[in-house]
Fold these 4 entries.
Entry 1:
Amino acid sequence: MGAHKHGPPSTKNIAGGVGRGILGGLLDEGKSWVRFTLAGAVVGSVGLGGVVAYHFGLEHLLLGAGIGAAVGGVGAGLLYLFAAAEL
């Protein structure tokens, strides 16, 4: 039977494990943030696009949907970041 070396783990292995854990957490957080922002953009574009189309006609639907997507996406993204900061 061969001799097995059992010693303390090297700092390189520990740092690599911690780095992978942090990177995985950041990637998961980023994915959640993007999903939340996209959902806000969809809700904003449908909501504001519908209101603008109702009041100003279908000619302005695209403009309202674009502005609604931008405002909804930014608003939802900031809401997510503020909520995540409070946890």
Entry 2:
Amino acid sequence: MSLRSKPAPSWFLWVLFLLIPLQIFAYFNLGVSYKYEVDHAETFVSIDTSRSVASKAAAFQKIAQRAQQIRRQQRHSLVIAAAAAGALVALGLRNDRLRRRT
């Protein structure tokens, strides 16, 4: 029996099934991180009167880098969730087709 004619193991389908909500949770969790690490940090830096203009500019640059990192991580978590969903559907349909054949 070749590898192409074997159905995917059911544990692997369960792993893919559980990966989808975990990645969606990660997406929303990163949104909360964005709120606290970027939005609040920008507010605190902008209202801080003891900082110089150069210090504020450096702080805003670090905050912008962190915002970019968080957005990139959010995109990655959605791509992983979509890939897991696609693989789950494709392997599920393939398993069903292979089971009907036998």
Entry 3:
Amino acid sequence: MSVSSLYQTTMQAQLFFINLHHQNLLFPLDDPIRDAIGHIVGDEQCAQIQCHIDAIQNNDLDWGLFQDADGFCIALHSGELNEWLKAMGLMHRKVA
């Protein structure tokens, strides 16, 4: 199975980036990966992550409001995505 076949829907691609975010590996997609996270993970994992990012960016996915994968990652990293989900009633607020 090719990597590009893993990302046939925008939701599949979004889940990949959410997973990176939860691992503290999300970075601006226009930055060189080794500069961004090479101090956290090795060259092999950097290459694997870049392969997935390339596959996502090469697929013609509809990112809607985010316009592209980079826009989604910016919203995810900045916390704006959580606010939009809350506003749409799609995410429950954590109870203290």
Entry 4:
Amino acid sequence: MPTNRPHGAGRRGPVAREPVLSPTGYRISERTKFELVAAMSYTGATTLQAVIDIAVAEFLERMGTTPGYKATLRTSAAERLRRGLPVPQSND
């Protein structure tokens, strides 16, 4: 069964499938998964999902200091409200 090609893939040649992602449901490379599992002993996390949650929380905390990021969040929230969509509550 043929697969749909991404719009920017062009017409010739196979669709790139590298790197092969983990079949566990996490869309990360095997190397990233390896490093996250190794990080468990340094974070106190007991599952891969817990390590990912910690990493994402730290990333978003750093994004808060990026100029314009908080304004983008406010604009996005206002746009969702305008469309009648729910706005997820802050974890703060």
